[in-house]
Amino acid sequence: MTDNKEQHPAAKLAYSRKNAWDVMSDSEKGAASAFCEEYKKFLGAAKTEREGVEAARDFLAGAGFRHLEESTALRPGERVYTVNRHKTLIAAIIGRNPAADGFNIIGAHLDSPRLDLKPQPLYEADGFALLKTHYYGGIKKYQWLSVPLAMHGVVVKGDGSAVSVAIGEKPGEPVFTVSDLLPHLAKDQMDKKMADAVPGESLNVLVGGIPVGGEDLKDRFKLAVLERLHQMYGIVEEDLISAEIEMVPAGMPRDVGLDGSFVGGYGQDDRVCSYACLRALAEMTGPERTVLIVLADKEEIGSAGNTGMNSSFFVNAIAEIVSRCDPGSNELVLRRALSHSRALSADVNAGLDPNYGDVYEKTNAARLGGGVVLTKYTGSRGKSSSSDAHAEVMAAVRCLFNSAGVVWQTGELGKVDQGGGGTIAHIMAAHGMDVLDCGVALLGMHSTFEVASKVDIYMTYKGYKAFLLS
């Protein structure tokens, strides 16, 4: 029997979520798949913030961007970038409007949780050579046990020269690992709280097991590793004191699911948003307002240091751009440019995971496949460290996305009092600009293998492009 009942007029007033797969055409699905293939290459190449900047710089150079210092005067349509200490990048396309009218800005970050080697990392114990680490960012320490790790970073030697280190990514190369305790002997460990079961000081990386010299030689397992490092990179142990070596999950990103609907890999927080805004910027031509992206460092540890968003680099770079656009500008013009700007804080959100549904408030949780996520506020408990976007800002962005055919959803970081987190939004808002958090929903955020939906990645790119053009 057919139900011929008409829908009640009030039903048209309700908001209903969309799944992007349902509303996309076959051609757009193909475009999303192709976009994610390029994204996976970027994600696999950018395992650290330094590598992320290098990959972004190469991409921009291929898209006609040149270094900001090469221009004494900037004219509409010019494409420039600047890099801060190999870890932060800002890129812009100069618009036709005066700088004082403000910029359209998207800010993301390139750093991700990881294990950093300590300044004096190498030691031996019980026939092993090991490396001491200090974890970076918010991690579940047990997730870093018994997984293949790669070594990435830079060593600045005693003569001032620098050498890049990358071991564990190429076929046939050795990997590293932090061993776990077998369950047969883990009674005491398993009786502990999960947060206490793996002490930070036990995250020591297995690096060698063949000794050098005779049995009477002291530290011969450690010396064997030093000998190999010297052969490979010409470094000595003291050089490790002036090194930045990061242990990250080895291997390339992969499609996830029989249908290949997801991308899985390390570091998608926040390189997924970094790549999306990078692509959106590079594909723009002739904007009315100057458009700018910032790929920052240190977000995972509070945006500190001179490469984080709390540093002067962001304002200094904008001041350089303003002065080159208008040589007669002053401090007031800079302040107006900042306060008249509008920005998206491009960062990820927590996707609803049916395995752990009790920590989400499902009415307001983001879902994989639901499109780019608009996050009005972040923070924890009472919205601590959140900029909390104004209603006018939310309305402007959702109307923009609707008109551009961008599938979007709202989201927040779990139940109230369950936890929470922050982004760079409040730092950008401190300059007077309107800011909204906007990015991709992830499963397993901060884990060694984060998962994102391909359509969400594509809709995020599409949304960023619409925002920059607005």
Q: What secondary-structure arrangement, pairings included, does this model have?
A:
Blueprint: H1 20-23, H2 26-45, H3 49-62, E1 66-67, E2 79-84, E3 88-93, E4 103-109, E5 114-125, E6 128-136, E7 149-156, E8 162-167, H4 187-191, E9 205-208, H5 220-233, E10 243-249, E11 254-256, E12 262-265, H6 268-282, E13 290-296, H7 313-325, H8 331-339, E14 342-345, E15 349-350, E16 372-375, E17 379-380, H9 391-403, E18 408-410, E19 420-421, H10 425-429, E20 434-439, E21 441-443, E22 450-453, H11 454-469
Helix pairs in contact: 2-11, 6-11, 7-8
**DSSP E strands, number:** 22
Query: By helix and strand content, what is the structural category?
Result: alpha/beta
**Shape by Cα distribution:** globular
- Share of helical residues: 25-40%
As laid out across the biggest beta sheet, the strand order is 1-2-3-13-4-14-20-16-18
Give a nutshell description of this structure.
Helix content is 27%, strand content 24%.
Structure description:
The protein has 470 residues and is α/β, with parallel strands linked by helices. The protein folds into 2 domains: 15-112 and 266-469, Aminopeptidase (3-Layer(aba) Sandwich), CATH 3.40.630.10; 114-249, Aminopeptidase i, Domain 2 (Roll), CATH 2.30.250.10. It is built from 11 helices and 22 strands. The strands form 4 sheets. The protein has a 9-stranded mixed β-sheet with strand order 1-2-3-13-4-14-20-16-18, with helices on both faces. It has a 6-stranded antiparallel β-sheet with strand order 8-7-10-5-6-9, with helices on one face. The longest helix is centred in the N-terminal third of the chain and has 20 residues, at 26-45. The model has no long low-confidence stretch (mean pLDDT 95).
